[in-house]
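Researcher: Re-running this chain for the archive, since the previous output was lost when a drive failed. Same request as before.
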Amino acid sequence: MKSDERYRKQSSPTTGLGHSAPGQYPTFTVEESIVMRAFAAGKSDKQVRIELRVPLQLFHRLLGNLVEKTQTRDRVGLHVWALRQKEYPDSRQTERDLRMKATSAQS
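Model: Regenerated structure tokens:
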């Protein structure tokens, strides 16, 4: 069994949980967010597991959830998705920054 197959999930019409509508950013758990940031930073699976201090089975479950939520096929697709998000960040971050600047300017 290839390492990618361990955490690859089969998609079906009834397992749409975690998927978001096209154009919307998926919602990640804290652990999933840490993994995605680490992938975007170019860290290996082993480095991420050591930082999170999680067993291999849980790490593969996290990867499976991320693959499903990002609608990618495997670990490589997940890494590409993370790099694209790093390159073109979610517009919600820009909106938060603008609101924070507006709030601080009013004070």
